[in-house]
Predict the 3D structure of the following.
Amino acid sequence: MKRIILKIMGVVVVLIVLLQSIAMAATQSELQNQKDDNQDKIDDAKENLSNVQEQKSGVQEEINNLDSQITDYQSQIADLDAKINDLNTQIEEAQKKLDEAQTQYDENQKLAEERLVAMQESGDVSYLDFILSSDSIADLISSYYLASELAQADTELLDSLQTQKDEVEKAKADLENSKAELDNSKASKESVTAQLEVVKEEKNTEVAKLSEDEKQIQAQIDELAEANKEIDAKIQAAIKAAQASKPSKPSNSGNTGGSTGGATSTGGGAVSSSGFIYPVPSGYRTITTGMYYSSGAYHGAVDFGSGGVNGQPVYAVADGTVIVSERLSGSYGNYIIIMHDNGLFTLYAHGQDGSRTVSAGDRVTQGQQIMRVGSTGNSTGPHLHFEVRTSPGNYSNRVNPKDYLP
Ligand SMILES: [Zn+2]
């Protein structure tokens, strides 16, 4: 009877080991598939990124062209301005000359009129007057000749003044025409410049949008690369676990014993329906930040951060295999990820430097101390950042730890 029981037990153990290695192989190939998928996505994103960058540099070149066109137009406008100023001065001078000519003409006309009136008053003007007033025919001829010659000279002078005046007037009109042309040309160049500025503004907006796209794609690539790093760690851990599971298997069946031992060190913490205990000792379990920050931003974890928590032990909340134990300079700082036998993953972050006592591939038991609470990485004060993730344990599979804790 005892032998039969032993035989059955032997078969059961072999079956368990066999099933477990099949499950591990499946997990490993699943992980590898997931990693390949991510790599495909990374390749696509990189191609997308280089397209965006090419497009951006194209638009940037267009902006440079527009800039040089605008500069060119601006210097042409400055030239026109100088010419217009010059013409304005010439027009002013012409106007001055015109005023002078007008004054001269007016004065001469006045003199001529006065002479005419004087001659009329003295009776010298009409031919009859000349005849009647002349003592002799010779006297008559000379008087008349004198008077008419005087009138002739006046007329000629006035005519020449009029001609001068007309010439200045014409010159002034020419200058005004030239100025009007330059004004037109300046206005059209200004309107072209304004249009170029509008186009340039549009191109600048386009560049800003492309830069934003570039940033987002880069962030996507970084996230995927980070995810693949985690997957790599899991694969490594799964391999180590598979190698270590055969001799250590019997001790696993003594889980309850292990956790009882751990429970003593955790201050007799209760076990939740998910089989988890608290990751920090009693008295340090105040949750200072939940799944969301007070700002409303997503946190995806709980922080145990009440006063004096610094240096407190961090416990594995359940049995499992360590898949990550490393230090990041930012982000999580010193952190550990454990893959539990129930398919859940837990993450413990910001531990003190030098306090991690487990490495990837190690088996841990519930309540076992794995690290001490610290403030490494992206942290403003000592606290334990604690995450629970569902299978396959990605960053995007985070769930509320409160639902899994006692
Ligand atoms: Zn946190």
Summary: The radius of gyration is 52 Å. Residues 36 and 257 are 40 Å apart (CA to CA). Confidence is low (pLDDT under 50) at residues 246-267. The chain has two domains: 58-213, 254-406.
